[in-house]
Structures are given as structure tokens and as C-alpha cells.
Amino acid sequence: MAVKDYLRERFFPHMWCPGCGHGTVLNGLIRAVEKLGMSKNEIVMVSGIGCSSRISGYVDFHTLHTLHGRALAFATGIKLSKPELNVIVPMGDGDALAIGGNHFIHAARRNIAMTALVMNNRIYGMTGGQYSPLSGYGTVATTAPFSNIDQGFDVVKLASAAGATFVARTTVYHVHEVSDLIQQAVLHDGFSVVEVLSQCPTYFGRHNRLGGPVEMLQWFKDQTTRIGSKAAAENPELIQRGIFVQEDRPEYCTEYDKVIDKAMAAVKG
Length: 269
Prior knowledge:
alpha/beta, 2-oxoacid:ferredoxin oxidoreductase subunit beta, globular, eight-stranded mixed β-sheet
């Protein structure tokens, strides 16, 4: 199928602000699915509430637009009932790590096979520019006009510590990486996390005087580097991109089937 066949074109133009990076994530996601050659009936996308969560309305897959922070809980139910489906869960800062934080760490701990796509723009864009768990110390938001004193989560470290078996990071500037990492995450048999740094010029960029979309994209280019690069060794302050964790561990649905088999055998015995 062509890329456009995976889109619900009747819902365009999209609702994202001019210069928002989430459209680039949608582009990378669609191209990843197209390269994998998947049927639309093989995919379920589950989202919660927020700018990032609107992505589920633009794709022509099976989709659920659910409650704020509960996307992974709904996705877990889908995966357990239909383990043959590829489940993709796009989330923003709050969906993933504020109200949804408990679901995130336990989905990682269980290693249930789904792809958590964390679209990190460091702000709550849909509700007015409040700071989020990923905003970081010293940033400015509508709820932190004199600067934020909360430390931010590191998505990669948190996902790795919680037990995710595939953990990666990239930015919307690195468009080919977005598509490539999503492909690998979907193919991985376990809980996969792909963090994509995405710009929000409307709130985060404006409040923190980072310029417009072009300047914010330039920042992603200048302030990130590949894992293990010479630049990373010379400047530890650079944000590293790439695959941080990729390991095999028993997948939850497979292990659950074994429990069912044992129970059935015990009943018959």
C-alpha cells in the first residue's frame, strides 16, 4: 500500500499548531508501517488525551482514543485478548509519565509486547502550556512563570530501569531515525519505548525564548549526538540518540499462555 492509504485523509488538515513536531512523528510512523508491509488490520493504535494523542485520529488503523494517562492500560487489555495484533501507543509527557506513570513502569516491568511512542515536547500544549514531568529544571511555563524547580525524568533511564527490553531515543530533526527506530520497536518481541524529542514553538519555545520551529529543530541537531560518538565523549552534556536497550526476555502474553496451559492441564488431570 502507498503511504496515503494508511491515513484518514478526511480528517485533514490536522489540528496541530504550525511548526509542531508531532506531524513529523506521524510521517515517521506511517513510513515505518509502510516499510514493514503491514496490513491495516494487523495494527491497533491506542492513545489517551493531549496534542500527541490526536495522532490516532489521522491513521486508518483500528484505533482507540481513551482516557488521559490510561492508554497503556487499554492497550494491555487489547494485547492480552488479541496477542497477534501489533499495538502502538503514542503518548505525550503527561499520558506517559504524569498521570500515566504508574501504567508506564508496570507495562515495562511486565514486558508486554507493544510499542510506547513517547512524543516529548516538554510541555502540556493542549491545555495551555503547563510544565510537565519532562520540562526540566529551570524551564518556564504558564504554571512556572518564575522557572520550574522540578527535576525532569529521563525517559530512557526510567524505561530501562523499569524493565523495558527495547529503549531508543531520537528527535524530529532526524526524520530517518524516527522511522527506523519505530520499525525496530514494532518488530521487537517485548515492551518497546521510543522517545522522540518534538518541538512545541507555541508554548515551550515561546516561553523559553528558543525561537521558532526552525531554531528549535536546529537545537535538536546541535545538542544531540549518536550513542558512543566522538562528540559524546568530548561533550557529555549532549543528548545521546540511538538504541540504549535491546534484549530478549520472556514476553508477557507468551508467559500468560503457559499459565493457561498449566491450569487446563491441572483441571484435566
